[in-house]
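Data deposition worksheet. Section B asks for the primary sequence of the deposited chain exactly as it was used as input, without tags or linkers unless they were present during the calculation. Section C holds the resulting structure in token form. Section D is free text for depositor observations; keep each observation to a single sentence. Incomplete worksheets are returned to the depositor.
Section A, Depositor: J.P.
Section B:
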Amino acid sequence: MARSDTIKVISDATRDVPGLKALFLSGSYATGLADQYSDIDFVLVADSGASDEVAQIWHDAVGKTGEIMLWWDRTNVLVLINAITADWTRTDVVILKPEQMGSHAQSSLKPLFDHDNIYDSLAKSAQNYGPNLKKFRYQVEEFIRILGLLHLAAGRHEYINRVLGVFHLRNLLVDLLIEETDAPNRGGILHLNRLITEDQKHLLTSLPPAVPTRDAMISAHLAYAKAYLPRARNRATRLGMDWPERFEAATWARLGEALSVQCPYMR
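Section C:
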């Protein structure tokens, strides 16, 4: 089924159900950034919120678009339902009460039906509160912590499992690169190409892969440290955030003592 038909079928199936006040598209289908691979994000407004009854109504509506292969009903987020049908159409819905819509903005929604004119009461665009310094500090400290665990993995010869360390360092670097571009409408995890610059892409593709051997693990960790830590330091300076200097110094001291490596950049 075409995505436009999926949206229409679900909208028609829920439009006149008592207690359902509004249905909006969100995500890439609301902002005009959807492509053939995008999932379909909805916000459903119901008097009772994310109740079992409303979840069943939504299940019936999605079932009209195809056989449901995967159904995650409020498993991780109390108001979120994820579904995948047989043709691999992915739909996500957040189910809210009318009074919970205040955190949304018109710029991130597209009304499908709106019986109580909720859309008109929303702010035109979300307020930009600037960089999240608490989150950024956590990410920097997490990078240093994961880097420091290298000596433990080397000591235990846990090279197979330690590839996860490189994976986490890479994710933190990607997050930092996206923050540097300050890209709007970030979307899901598979939208990286439009969020970072060509130079940033070259940096990521030039870094070594995670190979489960001692020398490869050490080289990869040092390469990611060289790519991440100077950029993160520069960003911290620009944002006026104190750098965890003592933690980083202690980490390099421990790695030097255990593995005879040195910090790969000028601090």
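Section D:
The longest strand covers residues 20-26.
The chain has two domains: 3-121, 133-259.
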